[in-house]
Amino acid sequence: MSANPDLIRWGIVGPGRAAGRFAQGLAGVSDAALLAVWGRNPDRAREYARSFSVPRIALAIDELLATPVDAVYVATHPDTHAAFCTAALDAGKHVLCEKPAALNVRQLESILAAARRNDRLFMEAMKPPFFPLYRELRAHLAADPVGPVGFVRAGHSDSTLSPDYPLHFRELGGGGILGIGPYEAFLALDWLGPLKRVQTMGRLAPAGVDSFAVFQSEHERGMAQLHTGLDLLSLGDALLCAPGGYVHIHANWWNPARATIHYLDGREVLLDKPFAHGGFNYETAHFCDLIRSGQRESPEISHALSLAMASLLQQARTALGVHFPGE
């Protein structure tokens, strides 16, 4: 048992790219430590343990879940999120799951049922709202408003991804909508409220995943135009439009560091808030604080918000004919 009652001990499921950034961020979180790692590739797990000084390498997922970790970060591909999140929750662990939390709404509902059944915290890892810039933007607009946001434009398309990148594979839950789209879905829902309907245009790659998509969504407080892609290159900025002005969140908007607020009267206000430790530290610190305070749901990334994101993305991709094995 740890001598520090505030220490949150973490286990890693899936020592890939996201888990590396998570470890980088954890270095900036007080009273948190990596205790164990498991991955399907033992060599990658050993390399991860060496790189980030993780004391335990589990040989099986059950072995990791039997270690005295308080929380598990699930960083595998989306096709396995439901199974690993449910197993971790059933083992009595709190779970932070990389976005998207599941392939579809049905899977996410099963994860949330497991969280309730085991009285454990579950949160989808959605980092933008915890960044210093995003928080300062919220505070600035509350003090010097542009009015209610009624239109959101955001998106990212990356044609530099190598052919073996996971987003190219349908069996892993790939495609731009599910791999990149969660960020765009979050931004639209965060500023415009609950979803009313989605319209989608796009094209599919030979592998059956969406290679480029434009999806327009109508919400209770406005509309959004979003795009994702794997075969074109785009800027990765975002726009929030209101009656009294607009906000330009500079690229890459999902790691927000700069935003310019343009007012109807001609004023321009630049917000510049660099982030530290790669940015994963902010959502992880929030998650650790929720555990210490006994909460079972994040007020920032609520279960309802995750379900709304899952619904928007599911509607967008299925309109193009993207379906995953087992659906």
Task: Please tell me about this protein's structure.
- This protein is an alpha/beta fold and 327 residues long.
- Helices cover 33% and strands 26% of the residues.
- The strands form two sheets. Strands 8-9-10-7-11-12-13-14 form an eight-stranded mixed β-sheet, covered by helices on one side. A six-stranded parallel β-sheet has the order 3-2-1-4-5-6, sandwiched between helices.
- Strand 9 (210-219) and strand 10 form a beta hairpin.
- Helix 4 runs parallel beside helix 5 (105-118) and helix 5 (105-118) packs antiparallel against helix 10.
- The longest helix is centred in the last third of the chain and has 17 residues, at 303-319.
- It is globular, with a radius of gyration of 20 Å.
List keywords for this structure.
327 residues, alpha/beta, 6-stranded parallel sheet
Question: What topology does this entry show?
Answer:
Layout: E1 8-13, H1 17-26, E2 32-38, H2 42-52, E3 56-57, H3 61-66, E4 71-74, H4 81-90, E5 94-98, H5 105-118, E6 122-125, H6 132-143, E7 151-157, H7 176-179, H8 181-192, E8 195-204, E9 210-219, E10 222-229, E11 238-242, E12 245-249, E13 258-263, E14 268-272, H9 280-292, H10 303-319
Parallel strand pairs: 1-2, 1-4, 2-3, 4-5, 5-6, 7-10
Antiparallel strand pairs: 7-11, 8-9, 9-10, 11-12, 12-13, 13-14
